[in-house]
Design a protein that fits this description.
The complex is a heterodimer of chains A (728) and B (257). Chain A is of the alpha/beta class and 728 residues long. Chain A has 4 domains: 7-103, ADC-like domains (N-terminal domain of TfIIb), CATH 2.20.25; 113-185 and 379-465 and 476-508, 3-Layer(aba) Sandwich (Rossmann fold), CATH 3.40.50; 190-372, Dimethylsulfoxide Reductase, domain 2; 580-714, Barwin-like endoglucanases (Beta Barrel). Chain A is built from 23 helices and 27 strands. A 6-stranded mixed β-sheet of chain A has the order 5-16-15-14-6-7, with helices on one face. Chain A has a 6-stranded mixed β-sheet with strand order 22-24-23-26-20-25. Chain B has helices spanning 37-45, 53-57, 127-131, 153-156, 179-191, 204-208, 225-232, and strands at 23-28, 65-68, 71-73, 80-81, 85-88, 106-109, 114-117, 138-139, 172-173, 214-218, 237-238, 250-253. Chain B is globular, with a radius of gyration of 19 Å. Chain B is an alpha+beta fold. Chain B has one domain (23-253): 2-Layer Sandwich (Alpha-Beta Plaits), CATH 3.30.70. The chains are: A alpha/beta (728), B alpha+beta (257). At the A-B interface, helix 1, strand 4, helix 2, helix 3 and helix 8 of A face helix 1, helix 2, helix 4, helix 5 and helix 6 of B.
Chain lengths: 728, 257
């Protein structure tokens, strides 16, 4: 040691010398899991600041962003984005950042257990119930169910694509029905409508890709692409590129939506249209553009009455003409359908009207236009999640007693589906309910057995990413050793297959199964890496966080006569007798399933700054007419139910509309979620659009005063909290 | 401006010439979508506690960075929200929080040109928080991280960042520009016998931001990313409350234009 370096400096330098930021991988079976060491057993060679980094895939939503997780002594410390991953390029959303609080959540299912339906999975002090089974017995329970394959059903969430593939293969081998996938996020994204509209217009039932990043004018008809829609990180990046990517032109952005959502707040113009009128508006704009261009009005826009549309949305014709002028001046305009505009009885025609507008812009398959999302490297076809109508049919099967054993993984239908569909009641006709839930959610509470799967950060797997221009298979590997006595569901099924006495699984474990699904990628050209054989390939797959093509696979929608065919956009139907349109939306901070994460609860909603609870957005003028103040509790009554929540007087909403975030209102799901807020799905009726998606915004509700008051925690200034009264 | 408001004019007595500073940030409000990823990233990196609904309702939330939004017009249908503005410690050169601390807990780092908060000196007078025009200091009103009071935190504390002190009741805290990351990069550079390069590391908020609205880097390097970004957008650039002459190290680029 040189005299010039102090001891303290020496220690610091020594630690830096040893530290590398290389992303590690588990290569063989021996190193499939890292070890978690207690701090009291800190090995000599570790220094403060020496971390190990693992690449994996985020499972907070189905987008499949790549993560790099910083770990230390086997603990996951910090989530960072994977800079090389094509979906998110090193970025994450808030939900990705706090996925660690799911991993280390105080309430998780700690081991396999048999339990009485309806009984809580933790006590009143929120201490989890202990496991009361051995995994070997759990395997036998699953094996017994699999012995009558025609009478089981698999209900899955939208993440864990490798598990979906495993069960799909199982279905072809043993005759169990193909798995059904569902998620509240895809319900509010109206994925079935998007895919049906693409089928009608492009001849291909697929997920369209909207190239917002290369557009210079974005017309969004309800698509909340900066919040939770499809692939929020990718669309946030695209938004930034649209605004500032071209130093000469700042992209222009118009949002048509009944409330000023977080996305609408970033728009240059927010046009508050009534729910369900978006398709009409798109047609009117199309007609105005065609007129201004001086071309023959295409058939699709012929029958629209521009003045009628303008007066129906409470705007001047000049407002629409002004937008038409913007379109004429733009080089790459794009129109994006989504969100509440599609969750209407006329949602499909709304989507098709907006896609027809793109045909007029002539942007199919062009930069800044509409493409067909590439399939993932090992994907045969686009498998969209089930629509709510399909879920309703499934519930019908359950009620009819056709399902003896129901396996549920990665989804919480008791909470996520509208109560009026009767999922919880239908469970009574299912002989055995086996949940693979990681968290003690409402559906796990209604199960007979809970055989918990690992948290996403403890799991192997892969996810097919959407939202990228490249074809991406995003890889997941455990970054820590499982925290509790959980098992991978694929491993549970493999073990159970060995006990059925029928066909055993050809795979030893989950990792071997995943390798089998990667095998055909080795020989593919244009990949992000190559390897001579499967062991090296899967080691690279984990180290890089996935495998993707290096050249774009975006396909152009095939030429169709979208403009020639006439399109009837009927007026939307609204169920219920109330005077207000009701617009539920996915909470931008919580997402569909983040209520058990404390830091998501304490993030202020971007628009209202409300934390920790459910609010009702009411226009201040409407509130004044009704004699309602901030924090007054009102009862929202629909045809199917009622919920009570505190009012937030929100200037950015139509006076005839009220809105409420989805995400709270749990009756289980742990200490941070339970008993907090209300669930707007409780007031939604079973009404569908032509594509089978839930018409979640197609209802009308009554607002009743309750005389109660409940303060909302919010970040913005709040006169009145300390007893001062706001003076008018 | 200050005199119009009846305040004594603030004179810069610390140095004759305005120093350029060492670390700085440029925040483009045109790109910020208000998504809260920076808030979540900061809290996970810096062991910022949650306080729960009741304390949050009293304004005791501990966020080191928050997304501000105000209303330009609340009259429907001309409603207009201001552009989302991430607000965090501006690391002022003339920091109003520093001279008011009776125990020298709020001091200036001459080597980094950052405002420091020395937790184990802090006695909780909250003078610094009162004097901060940006309202970005947060005070530990209670022991939010004590496992004896909050047993549910025992498992959550597994993800605590060992590089960052956990604060206790009665201590003021604030954004440090991720000083632990600065030091790590400086140690690495020192061991390699060089200066820290611009872009070698970044803060947790800038690292997470999906829209790339936040950029962190060297202020004293004219060729650094933030200096180029500010220069290229001079017409949109400004400091928060710059009339107070606090010389903030964060430049905001106006949005919507």
């Amino acid at each position: 040691m040189s005299e010039k370096i102090s001891r303290r400096d020496f220690l610091k330098l020594a630690s830096v010398g040893a530290a590398t930021t290389a992303v590690l991988t588990g290569c063989g079976p021996a190193s499939r899991y890292v070890q978690r060491e207690p701090y009291t057993k800190m090995p000599e060679y570790t220094y403060n600041g020496l971390s190990t980094y693992y690449a994996t895939t985020c499972r907070e939503c189905a987008a499949g962003c790549g993560l790099i997780v910083r770990t230390m002594q086997g603990r996951a410390i910090k989530v960072e984005g994977n800079p090389n991953h094509p979906v998110n390029l090193g970025k994450t959303c808030a939900r990705g950042q706090v996925t660690l609080q799911g991993l280390y959540n105080p309430n998780r299912v700690r081991g396999p257990l048999k339990h009485k339906r309806g009984e809580a999975l933790y006590n009143e002090k929120y201490e989890d119930v202990a496991s009361n089974m051995k995994w070997e017995d759990a395997f036998q329970v699953v094996a017994d169910a699999l012995k009558s394959p025609a009478e089981v059903a698999f209900l899955m969430g939208t993440t864990s694509d490798h598990l979906f593939d495993f069960i799909s293969d199982l279905a072809t081998v043993t005759g169990v029905p193909a798995p059904i996938r569902f998620g509240a996020a895809s319900m509010f994204e109206t994925r079935a409508t998007l895919s049906k509209a693409a089928e009608d217009l492009f001849g291909q039932a697929t997920m369209p890709f909207f190239d917002i990043g290369n557009a210079d004018l974005v017309l969004s008809f309800g698509a909340n692409f900066l919040e939770t829609w499809i692939s929020p990180v990718a669309y946030n990046r695209a938004y930034a590129k649209m605004r500032r990517g071209n130093p000469k032109v700042r992209g222009y952005f118009v949002q048509f939506e009944s409330r000023l959502s977080q996305t609408a707040a970033k728009a240059d113009e927010w046009i508050p249209v009534p729910p369900g009128s978006e398709g009409q508006v798109a047609l009117a704009i199309g007609r105005l553009v065609a007129e201004a261009k001086g071309v023959t009005i295409p058939g699709v826009f012929e029958s629209v009455d521009v003045k009628g549309v303008a007066s129906a949305i409470g705007a001047n014709v000049e407002t629409l003409e002004n937008i038409a002028q913007h379109i004429l001046a733009a080089a790459n305009p794009i129109a994006v359908p989504g969100g509440a505009a599609l969750g209407m009885s006329n949602g499909l025609s709304n989507a098709e009207a907006v896609l027809a507008l793109n045909a007029l812009f002539d942007n199919y398959g062009k930069p800044g236009g509409i493409f067909i999302s590439p399939l993932s490297p090992n994907e045969d076809a686009y498998h969209r999640p089930a629509s709510v109508q399909e879920m309703s049919d499934f519930i019908g099967q359950m009620k009819g007693g056709a399902i003896k054993t129901l396996f549920i993984h990665g989804v919480n239908p008791v909470f996520e589906l509208p109560k009026s569909l009767g999922f919880e009641a239908a469970l009574a006709n299912v002989g055995t309910v086996i949940s693979f839930a990681t968290f003690p959610d409402e559906t796990a509470v209604q199960a007979d057995y809970v055989f918990p799967d690992h948290h996403g950060l403890e799991s192997w797997g892969y996810q097919r990413a959407t939202g990228s221009t490249l074809s991406v298979l995003s890889g997941a590997q455990p970054v820590v050793v499982p925290f509790y006595d959980t098992r991978s569901t694929v491993d549970v099924l493999i073990a159970a297959m060995g006990l059925t006495g029928g066909q055993a699984s050809p795979f030893k474990d989950e990792v071997e199964f995943i390798q089998s699904k990667l095998a055909n990628l080795i020989s593919q050209a244009d990949g992000s890496f190559t390897a001579p054989e499967i062991n090296s390939f899967s080691a690279f797959f984990q180290q890089h966080g996935g495998w993707w093509k290096t050249t774009t696979d975006l396909a152009s929608p095939s030429a169709t006569d979208a403009l020639g065919t006439s399109l009837e956009v009927s007026a939307s139907e609204f169920a219920g007798q109330g005077e207000f349109f009701f617009v539920p939306f996915v909470s931008p901070t919580l997402g569909a399933s983040g209520a058990n994460i404390p830091w998501l609860q304490e993030l202020g909603d971007p628009n209202t700054t409300v934390m920790w609870n459910t609010w009702v957005e009411i226009n201040p003028h409407t509130a004044e007419e009704l004699g309602i103040e901030d924090d007054d509790v009102v009862r929202i009554v629909s045809e199917t139910g009622a919920v009570e929540a505190s009012v937030y007087k929100y200037p950015g909403i139509r006076p005839d509309t009220i809105a409420m975030p989805f995400g709270q209102g749990h009756t289980a799901y742990g200490i941070y979620a339970q008993g907090r807020g209300v669930n707007p799905a409780d007031v939604l009726g079973a009404h569908f659009n032509e594509a089978g998606d839930l018409a979640f915004a197609g209802i009308k509700v009554k607002v009743e005063k309750t005389g109660k008051k409940r303060e909302l925690a919010r970040m913005e200034g709040k006169l009145g909290v300390y007893g001062f009264i706001e003076e008018k | 401006m200050a005199t119009e408001l009846g305040m004594p004019a603030f004179t810069n007595q610390s140095q004759e010439e305005e120093p350029v500073g060492r670390w700085g940030m440029v925040i483009d409000q045109d790109l910020c979508t208000g998504c809260q990823a920076c808030v979540a990233a900061c809290s996970m990196e810096n062991n910022v506690p949650i306080v729960g609904e009741d304390d949050a309702s009293y304004g005791r939330y501990m966020h080191w960075i928050r997304i501000e939004r105000l209303w330009e017009n609340t009259e429907y249908p001309e409603v207009k929200m201001t552009q989302f503005q991430p607000m965090l410690c501006q690391q002022c050169h003339n920091a109003p929080c520093e001279p008011v601390c009776p125990v020298y807990a709020s001091v200036h780092s001459m080597s980094e040109d950052l405002n420091l908060q020395v937790y184990n000196r802090c006695v909780g007078t909250r003078y610094c928080g009162n004097n901060c025009p940006y309202q970005v200091r947060s005070f530990n009103w209670l022991d939010y991280q004590d496992e004896r009071i909050h047993p549910e935190l025992v498992s959550l504390h597994n993800h605590a960042n060992p590089d960052v002190t956990v604060r206790r009741r009665g201590v003021m805290e604030k954004c440090t520009f991720c000083i632990q990351r600065i030091h790590k990069a400086e140690d690495k550079a020192k061991s390699e016998g060089r200066e820290v390069e611009d872009g070698e590391f970044t803060t947790a908020c800038a690292q997470a931001c999906p829209a790339n609205a936040i950029t962190f880097g060297r202020l004293d390097d004219p060729e650094s990313g933030i200096n180029k970004l500010a220069a290229a957008n001079r017409s949109r650039a400004g400091h928060a409350l710059e009339e107070l002459r606090t010389l903030p190290r964060i430049t905001y680029l106006a949005g919507g234009v």
